[in-house]
Amino acid sequence: MTDMAGTPAADGAIRVVLADDQALIRAGFRVLLDGAPDITVVAEAGDGAEAVALARALRPDVVIMDIRMPVLDGLAATRQITADPDLAATRLLILTTFELDEYVFEALRAGASGFLGKGMDPAGLADAVRTVAEGGSLLSPRATTGLVEHFLAQPVRGDAPVKASLGRLTGREQEIVALAAEGLSNDDIAGRLHLSPLTVKTHANRAMAKVGARDRAQLVVFAYQSGLVVPGRA
Questions:
Q1: Between the CA of residue 176 and those of 16, 119, 167, 203, 233, what are the distances in Å?
Q2: pTM here?
């Protein structure tokens, strides 16, 4: 386990913890991220329990979390981190071998801000970290559509509180949440609804606050859990 003191980060740099049981993958990611002037890998973990401990000790901006790890898997570790009020500002990026990993949606539901494929373009890694550190989500239209169609074909049952939360949203907020669930960006939604991107962002932020979503990824999960959007329906 990496020393709890962690690696010092440059002022203003995005602080990252890498969690993967394969040292070679961690080393490769570390080289790529430490090569960015605004990102510093402050620690590495070889299992989920180490990742949780490091997150609590170092309070990083982003944790890149593999799912299949010993001791505590990444899904359980993600739940522990997102449930800790002291780590409300820490964002989780799930690392997966396959873009449609069967656990990805569960990770998003648990509070992750998106996911990375292990075969992703190395040049996009730093941008992905920056996106979630700034409060965005790493859910492309293709990824969103694929996840929804593959894993949400059957409606989620037993989520009455989630459905009740839908009633707290205004009509405009529901409209924007539904479009976000399709993978549209704020700019795309603004063009579709003839609004300014700032207005769209304001409505989306208000919707997140009303339904208790940590970020945009959680808002997408809410859209499907609540029945606002139904998979396969045009």
A1: 31, 32, 14, 7, 17
A2: 0.70
pLDDT tens across 75-105, in order?
A: 899 999 999 999 989 999 988 775 555 666 7
Record the tokens describing residue 221, joined without a space.
């999960």
- The token duo for 8 is 């010092």
Where do runs of H (alpha helix) occur along 84-166?
104-110, 123-133, 141-151, 160-166
39-45/91-96 β-pairing: unpaired
| Both structure tokens of 96 | 């997966």
Q: Which domains does the chain have, with CATH numbers?
A: 14-138 (3.40.50.2300), 158-225 (1.10.10.10)
Separation CA 41–CA 60 (nearest Å): 9
